[in-house]
TrEMBL record, chain A:
Pfam families: BPD_transp_1. It is found in: Cell membrane. Belongs to the binding-protein-dependent transport system permease family. SUPFAM superfamilies: MetI-like. GO terms for cellular component: plasma membrane. This is ABC transporter permease protein. The chain crosses the membrane at residues 30-51, 89-114, 120-143, 164-188, 208-229, 267-288. It comes from Bradyrhizobium vignae. It is a multi-pass membrane protein. PROSITE patterns: ABC_TM1. Residues 90-288 form the ABC transmembrane type-1 domain.
From TrEMBL, chain B:
The lineage of its organism: Bacteria, Pseudomonadati, Pseudomonadota, Alphaproteobacteria, Hyphomicrobiales. It is found in: Cell inner membrane. Its main location: membrane. The gene is ugpC. It holds the Pfam family OB_MalK. Belongs to the ABC transporter superfamily. One of its GO terms (biological process) is carbohydrate transport. Residues 4-234 form the ABC transporter domain. CDD domains: ABC_MalK_N. Keywords: ATP-binding, Nucleotide-binding, Transport. This is Glycerol-3-phosphate transporter subunit ATP-binding component of ABC superfamily. PANTHER family: MALTODEXTRIN IMPORT ATP-BINDING PROTEIN MSMX, OSMOPROTECTIVE COMPOUNDS UPTAKE ATP-BINDING PROTEIN GGTA. Involved in beta-(1-->2)glucan export. Transmembrane domains (TMD) form a pore in the inner membrane and the ATP-binding domain (NBD) is responsible for energy generation.
Length: 303, 366
C-alpha cells in the first residue's frame, strides 16, 4: 500500500514543488519591494539631516540642490561639541536615562516575577491594572503630576520642579508599567517545572528569580531595557513641562529651545544635535541586538 | 532515607476533589509506583508529597515527621519532572550541583558527588555541555543526576519517561531500576503506563478518580485484582469482560456465556462461587493469554468452543485474535502457527482455572 502511495505522490509532488518555488519567488519580490519602500521612507529624514548637518548656514539658505553638499564642513559638529551647553544637555539626558533604566529594572523585574509566578489574591487583576496604567497618555498626566510634585515640594521643602532629577520620578510612570508587562510575558513563558525544580533544590523565591529567571528570560530583560532607555532618551513632553532653566534641560528639549531663537532656526546645528542625540540609542541597539536575537532563537526551539 | 506515610490526604480545587482521602504507607527503600489514567489524582498526590501543592486535609509524613506545612526545600526530597526541567543556562555539572551550591557545600564535596553521580548515570563525558546540546535520554539522566547528588530522603518521579520514544523508554526504565538498586532511596514514581508500573515497582498503587483502587505487588495486581478497574487497567491487551450467569445443571455449577456456550466450573471455582445468588448479573474476567488455541491434551478446567474470528493481529511471538461473543468483543492469544485467519472459524480453549468473576454492578471481583 505504501509503495502505491509513493508512486502516486511522485509526480504531483514535483508539480507542487515547482509552484511552491514560484510562490516563494513572488513572495520574495514583494517583500523586497516593500522593504525597499520602507527603507526609503524611514531613511530619508536621517539622510537629509546628515546632509544638512554638513552644510554651513549660508549654504543651507542658498537656493542650491538641498540633497547635495557642495562645500562640506564639520563646523556644526565642532561648535556643538565644544559648547558646554550642549554637553550639559547630553550629560543630563545620559544620567536621567541610565538611572531611569536602573530604577525601572529594579521595580519591574520583581514586580513581573511576582505577578507571573507567585499566585496571590488579585494577581491577575493587578497584572491587567499595570498594563492599563500604561494606556493613559502622558499628555493627560502631566498637569496632575505637575500639581502633585508642586504639593510635595511645598510640603517637604525639597526643590523638585525645574530640576533634572525630577525626571527620575516621572519617567518610571511611563517605563515601569510597560516593562513589567513585557517581562510578565517572558517570565510566564518559563516552564513552571523550572521554578518548582529550583524550589525543591532549595532556592528561595529571590534566588529563583536571580539565578534562574533572570538568566533564562534575558532576551525579555534586554527588550525591556532597550524600551526603557529609548523612552527616557526621547521623552519630550515631561522635560518640557518640568524643567525650564537651560542647565536643567535634557537633549530633545535643549536642542529645540536653545537652537531656535524666536523665529530664527539654526538648522545646521539642530540637525547636528538631533543626529548626535540619536547616536546613543543606535549604539545600544547595535550592541544589544545580536545578543537579543541570539537569546530569542535559543528559546524558540524545544528544550 | 525515610519512610513516607499519607493519612486521609485530600486535595480540593474549589469544588472539585482531585484526591479523596487516601492512605498510603511507603516503607524505607521501597519503590512505589502510582499508576492510573489521567486525572486520577496521581500527579497531585506526588506534588503534595513534594510540597508543591498544599494539602486540603489529612497528613503527610516523611521519616515520621508531619510535613504538611514544611516548604519543599526543607522536606529533603528530590524530584524528576516529565519535561526534565533542567536549567537551560547552566551546564550539566552546574545543573546537578545547583542544590548543593545553594546549601553552601564545600567545593570538593560538590565535585566528588557530581562526579560520582555522573559515573553512575554514564554521563561523565557530557558534564560541561548545556541541556540544549543533549538528547532527550541524556537530559533525563541529568535530571536524575540532579536528584541523586542531593542524596535526599525520597525520590519523586513525575512521569519521567513520557517524553521519550518507545525504545529509549524501555532503556531508561532499566536504568532507573539499576539506579534504585544501587542507591536504595525511597522512591515514589508516577506514570500512566501500566507496563512501567509493573516492571519498576516493589508495590503498585492503582488510582482512579482520586481514590486508591488497590495496592499490591505487580503480581498480586495482575493475578488478584480487587476491582474491574484494576483488572482492566493492568495487563495488555486488557482483560476480557464477558457477561455471564451461573446455573446449576445436574448438581454441578456451570457458567453460561451465550445461549450456545456454557461450561462447568472447575471444582475449586465452583466451591468459591457456589454461594452466589444465581440471579446476579456477572462478568467473566479472563485474560487473553487464558484464551488460546485448542489442542489435544487439555488440562482439567480448560474448555473449548468454536468461534469465527473477526480480526487477527500477528505480533511475532504470538497472534492476537479478536472475536465476538453475543456482541461482546473478546481478545485471545494464540500460537502464531495455530492457523488463525481473519474471518475464519477457529476452535479456542478457555482456561477457567484462571478466571475471575465480577459483579457487573459494583465492579467488585468476587
Amino acid at each position: 500500500m505504501s509503495t502505491v502511495a509513493i508512486d502516486k505522490a511522485g509526480p504531483s509532488r514535483k508539480v507542487k514543488y515547482g509552484s511552491m518555488s514560484r510562490d516563494r519567488a513572488w513572495a520574495l519580490r514583494w517583500s523586497y519591494f516593500f522593504l525597499v519602500l520602507f527603507a526609503i521612507f524611514f531613511l530619508t529624514p536621517p539622510v537629509y539631516m546628515l546632509i544638512t548637518s554638513l552644510k554651513s548656514s549660508a549654504e543651507i539658505s542658498a537656493a542650491t540642490n538641498p540633497w547635495w553638499v557642495f562645500h562640506p564642513t564639520l563646523s556644526n559638529y565642532v561648535e556643538l561639541l565644544s559648547s558646554n551647553q550642549f554637553l550639559r544637555f547630553f550629560w543630563n539626558s545620559s544620567i536621567v536615562s541610565i538611572v531611569v533604566v536602573i530604577i525601572t529594572m529594579v521595580i519591574s523585574i520583581p514586580a513581573a516575577f511576582a505577578l507571573a509566578r507567585m499566585k496571590f489574591w488579585g494577581s491577575a487583576t493587578l497584572a491587567t491594572g499595570v498594563f492599563l496604567t500604561y494606556l493613559i497618555p502622558d499628555s493627560l498626566l502631566f498637569i496632575p503630576l505637575f500639581k502633585m510634585l508642586g504639593v510635595v515640594q511645598d510640603y517637604t521643602g525639597i526643590t523638585l520642579l525645574n530640576r533634572w532629577y525630577v525626571l527620575l520620578f516621572i519617567y518610571p510612570t511611563l517605563t515601569v508599567p510597560f516593562c513589567t508587562w513585557i517581562m510578565i510575558g517572558y517570565f510566564a513563558s518559563v516552564p513552571k517545572e523550572l521554578d518548582e525544580a529550583a524550589l525543591i533544590d532549595g532556592a528561595s523565591w529571590l534566588q529563583t528569580l536571580t539565578r534562574i529567571f533572570i538568566p533564562v528570560a534575558l532576551p525579555g530583560l534586554i527588550a525591556a531595557t532597550i524600551f526603557a532607555f529609548t523612552v527616557s532618551w526621547a521623552q519630550f513632553l515631561y522635560p518640557l513641562v518640568f524643567t525650564t532653566s537651560v542647565d536643567q534641560l535634557v537633549l530633545p528639549v535643549g536642542i529645540t529651545t536653545t537652537l531656535i531663537k524666536g523665529d530664527v532656526f539654526n538648522w545646521g546645528q539642530i540637525m547636528t544635535g538631533a543626529l548626535l542625540g540619536a547616536a546613543p540609542p543606535l549604539i545600544i541597539y547595535a550592541f544589544l541586538m545580536d545578543y537579543y536575537i541570539a537569546g530569542l532563537t535559543a528559546g524558540a526551539t524545544k528544550g | 532515607m525515610a519512610d513516607v506515610a499519607l493519612r486521609k490526604v485530600v486535595k480540593r480545587y474549589d469544588d472539585v476533589e482531585a484526591v479523596r482521602g487516601i492512605d498510603l504507607d511507603i516503607a524505607d527503600h521501597e519503590f512505589i509506583v502510582l499508576v492510573g489514567p489521567s486525572g486520577c489524582g496521581k500527579s497531585t498526590t506526588l506534588r503534595m508529597i513534594a510540597g508543591l501543592e498544599d494539602i486540603s486535609d489529612g497528613d503527610i509524613m516523611i521519616g515520621g515527621d508531619v510535613v504538611n506545612d514544611v516548604p519543599p526545600k526543607d522536606r529533603d526530597i528530590a524530584m524528576v519532572f516529565q519535561n526534565y526541567a533542567l536549567y537551560p543556562h547552566m551546564t550539566v555539572a552546574e545543573n546537578m550541583s545547583f542544590g548543593l551550591r545553594l546549601k553552601h557545600y564545600p567545593k570538593a564535596e560538590i565535585k566528588a558527588r557530581v562526579t560520582e553521580a555522573a559515573r553512575l548515570l554514564d554521563i561523565t563525558d557530557l558534564i560541561d555541555r548545556k541541556p540544549k546540546q543533549l538528547s532527550g535520554g541524556q537530559r533525563q539522566r541529568v535530571a536524575m543526576g540532579r536528584a541523586i547528588v542531593r542524596n535526599p530522603k525520597v525520590f519523586l518521579f513525575d512521569e519521567p519517561l513520557s517524553n521519550l520514544d518507545a525504545k529509549l523508554r524501555v532503556q531508561m526504565r532499566i536504568e532507573i531500576k539499576k539506579v534504585h538498586q544501587k542507591v536504595r532511596t525511597t522512591t515514589v514514581y508516577v506514570t500512566h503506563d501500566q507496563v512501567e508500573a509493573m516492571t519498576l515497582a516493589d508495590r503498585v498503587v492503582v488510582m482512579n478518580k482520586g481514590r486508591i483502587e488497590q495496592i499490591g505487588t505487580p503480581n498480586e495486581l495482575y493475578h488478584k485484582p480487587a476491582t474491574r478497574f484494576v483488572a482492566g487497567f493492568i495487563g495488555s491487551p486488557a482483560m476480557n469482560f464477558i457477561p455471564c450467569r451461573l446455573e446449576d445443571v445436574g448438581g454441578t455449577l456451570q457458567i453460561r456465556l451465550t445461549d450456545r456456550i456454557a461450561f462447568p466450573l472447575p471444582p475449586a471455582r465452583a466451591a468459591r462461587y457456589n454461594a452466589l445468588p444465581r440471579t446476579d448479573k456477572l462478568l467473566l474476567g479472563l485474560r487473553p493469554e487464558h484464551l488460546t488455541e485448542s489442542h489435544a491434551h487439555l488440562e482439567p478446567g480448560v474448555e473449548t468452543f468454536e468461534t469465527v474470528l473477526d480480526v487477527t493481529e500477528p505480533m511475532g511471538m504470538e497472534t492476537l485474535v479478536y472475536f465476538g461473543l453475543d456482541g461482546t468483543p473478546v481478545c485471545g492469544r494464540v500460537n502464531p502457527n495455530a492457523g488463525a485467519k481473519d474471518g475464519a472459524p477457529m476452535r479456542l480453549a478457555m482456561d477457567l482455572n484462571n478466571m475471575h468473576l465480577l459483579n457487573e454492578e459494583t465492579g467488585v471481583v468476587l
